[in-house]
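Kindly review these tokens for lecture notes.

. . .
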Amino acid sequence: MANHPLPPGTDWYFEFTVTLSGDTGKLEVGISGGFMPRFQLPGHYIQLWGYEGSTGQCWGQKAIVHSYPPFLTGDVVGCGFRFKDRRLYFTQNGEKQRECYTLFFSPRTCPGSLQYLRSRFL
């Protein structure tokens, strides 16, 4: 999980390459609007939103919102936010998935992910 918030009032996007999805493929990417317990996955707690790699489920505040294709070793996965309309979205291998959520943007929003990955912020 990141230790610095994303810049408020701007669009942002980050992506990563999955270098090892592990035995179970339990990998998630998402954002937190504040406190994120270390034992919780993005989307499985209040003020958390995430995309689960093993199932393709898109979670928001403890509920499944959409289903996308699962992602595994070698995939490039991204997460972005459009400030103008407060829309959170995910990408997989360069393809934008159906937009996930409309959020109330919090200046404390931080990217979060679990397992093995290499990331870059754009």
Q: What stands out?
A: The radius of gyration is 13 Å.
